[in-house]
Amino acid sequence: MVMIAVGWARGAGSGLISNFEQLVRGVWKPETNELLKMSYPVKVSLVGAVLFTMQATHYLPVAIHDLMLFYTVFLVVVKVAMMLTEFRTSPFAVFENAVGSFLFGFDPASVKAKGKAKISHNGGPSNSECTSGGEMGDGVKKRHAKKTE
Question: Which of 33, 41, 44, 63 is the most buried (most CB within 10 A)?
């Protein structure tokens, strides 16, 4: 478990360490907790930490160079596919929904409707930032104007 935690902290970097830093400073908020709402890089680094730890302890009978190749190819293919198709959810969503419904008994359809299209990977506005006519709100326009400057 320690090997996984150290590998995950090294892989995720500031995504996990910032939670500890906010807690020490006294400004921690649950909505910014990366452990409760994991982003794609944190999920990928957790999967990598588990795989490489299993390989190091000989539970996964694969050579280290083969595992590195497969893991790198997986990361590149998934990221390119997400960019080209503008896929807005995590590629782990299917697995998360299946495990969540099996272990906790929740309905994946209700979770999908609640958090539909809030994440934007291409820098564009999410559905919650658009007005009823599909136009961007004033705050979003200001943010995009600042980014282009």
Answer: 44
Instruction: Look at residue 34 and give its three-state secondary structure.
Output: coil
Give CA–CA dist 76/49, Å, rounded: 17
pTM for the full predicted model: 0.59
Dig out the tokens for 5 from the structure: 């935690």
In the block, which residue shows the tokens 């359809």? 109
Instruction: Indicate the helix (H) or strand (E) that contains 102.
Output: helix 93-104
In the numeric block, the tokens 């050579």 are attached to 63
CA distance 82 to 122: 10
Alpha helices (runs of H) in the chain, residue ranges in sequence order: 2-12, 14-25, 40-56, 64-85, 93-104, 108-114, 138-148
Q: Which tokens in the block code for residue 67? A: 């595992």
CA distance 53 to 66: 14
Bridge partners of 136? 130
**Look-up: residue for tokens 């400057």?**
149
The torsion region of residue 26 among left (phi > 0), alpha (psi -120 to 50) and beta comes to: left
- Give tens-digit pLDDT for 10-56: 677 776 677 778 888 888 777 777 777 787 888 888 888 889 989 99
H helix or E strand, kind and range, residue 89: none
